[in-house]
Specification:
Blueprint: E1 6-13, H1 14-24, H2 26-32, H3 35-42, H4 47-64, E2 78-82, E3 88-92, H5 94-102, E4 108-114, E5 118-125
Length: 126
């Protein structure tokens, strides 16, 4: 599997994401999420929890990338998808791939979880 280069973690209140969707609507959704993420989340019960977990994942990846969300890594630089209902998988855009290579990483592994009120994600760069 390879050695762990860095780790990132984030946790967010699901209600906070719900409020952002209510307040900013499509503008918020399009800024943060890729089309694949939106299709996945809105195709299931608990879409806000799913979106909150992906929000936490993007923050966790940005921390594992040692740069935060900004010039070197943007909200949509990572798309968290599920292949056939399996484990979450990280798909990076060109900017995300460049940052991964700068860290001498091969890939990003992500773990997502949520309760009724909180969503959390851990990201490993290996």
């Amino acid at each position: 599997m390879g050695s762990i280069i860095s780790v990132g973690h984030d946790m967010i209140e699901i209600e906070r994401v719900g409020h952002a969707i209510e307040k900013y609507g499509e503008k918020f959704l399009q800024k943060i999420y890729t089309p694949a993420e939106l299709r996945y989340a809105f195709g299931k019960v608990g879409s806000v929890a799913s979106l909150a977990a992906r929000f936490a994942a993007k923050e966790a990846i940005s921390k594992a990338f040692l740069c935060g969300i900004g010039r070197q890594f943007r909200w949509r630089s990572a798309s968290i998808i599920h292949q056939n209902g399996g484990a979450p998988e990280v798909i990076l855009d060109t900017l995300g791939t460049m940052r991964l290579k700068e860290l001498n990483g091969q890939r990003v592994i992500i773990s997502l979880t949520h309760t009724r009120s909180m969503a959390s994600a851990v990201a490993l760069v290996i």
